[in-house]
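Just wondering, does anyone understand what follows?

——
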Amino acid sequence: MTLRKKIKTGHPLIGPWCTIPTPSLIGVASSAGMNFVILDMEHGCHSYETIDLMLRYAEASGCYTIVRVAQNDESTILKALDLGVNGIIIPHMESKEDVEKAIQFSKYIPIGNRGYSPYTRAGGYDLNLNHCEKQNEEIATIIILEGIKGIQNIDSMLSIPNLEKAVDAIYVGAYDLSQALGVPGEIKNTKVVEAFDLIRKKVSDKGIQVAGYVAKNKEDIKWMLERGIKLVTILPDCSIFKNAYLKYKNDFDSILSEVAL
């Protein structure tokens, strides 16, 4: 089953944000059973060449790949899609016009106007008359609401005709939402949670999945699933590694204080 179909049908999925540009780490994540990895080109220092290698590692182990591009830009989105990813995350959605641009750049006709070349990894390096239809059908498109404007303009974004055919999930930035509500950083404040639930209902009523928040532990995962978030994102790889090393270092320091050497 494709990633897009799993997202569309509300299949629970879990995976990390990946900012470290090392292909072997994708193998580590997939060996741990992660369903997907998000290769972050906005906050990570990935090149397209590195992304290409990371995709191969993921595919070899049956892990879905999603690329978060750095900006809502035609060339940026096209290059990522032509590499053959399973899904794309497009940030900086602040208005209806931003979403319309993202659709135009990420979908082939008749939905959008993505630049066409079959001679890519996504196209199988050869002319295939079913390429456009197949890409529209199989590749997941996720957009991120950004800033106070993005939160405030959700209704106008959802008014786009047939939005559910072009966008599979909307990621709500919890920290942006908290700031918009006057409680910056308090992402589990009652006001924030209630607003998120309202946005989730509006998005779900359009046949689109909602995502948001980043799970730091088991309790967060449970909380997210109870909120109806089926696309569960966890901490970035850099944070996971730091926390693991930090635990060893703290244990080491604690034992040193107890053991006579």
